[in-house]
Amino acid sequence: MDAFLKIYDDYFDDLYRYVLFRVGNRWDADDLVSDIFRKALEYSCKHGGTIPEYDRAWLFAIAHNRIVDHYRRRKETAYGVDPEQGGYGHIRKMFQETSVQNECLEEALLQLGNKDREMVHLKYMVGFAYHEMSRMLDKTEGWLRTRMHRIRKRLAVDIDRCLEEG
Fold first, then answer.
1. 3-class state of residue 131 by DSSP
2. What per-residue confidence (pLDDT) applies to 125?
3. Beta carbons within 10 angstroms of residue 141's beta carbon
4. Which residue among 47, 65, 103, 164 is least packed, with the fewest CB closer than 10 Å?
């Protein structure tokens, strides 16, 4: 139980921000976060109170899967819409009252693919290290570093273009 309480205390805020950013409203985020920690507690109880050593990546992998399930179960999702895509449609609302630079960042983020957008979110908004992202996304650290470098270059080009267009 101590291991579970430690991950709850250490990661609650980061996990809540991650889920809230993906789903866009506090009601769903509250429900999902409580469900994620319930699943983590069930795992801990099943395994004698232990948690995997890569606890942060493990917890966020549970969150990712729960969010995908959440979008698959939503009745208002149109037929043929990829549940992986769910959760980023509200970005435009979040940035409406910001400066031109943030509008350009928003546009650049929205032009990224869903998996690239999630990687940016995990790295820069949640603060994951590459080894944690590697465990969560089942990719090598080298692949992630290369991919993030390419994503940053693309974002820089898109943001510069947007700022020039003014």
1. helix
2. 83
3. 14
4. 164
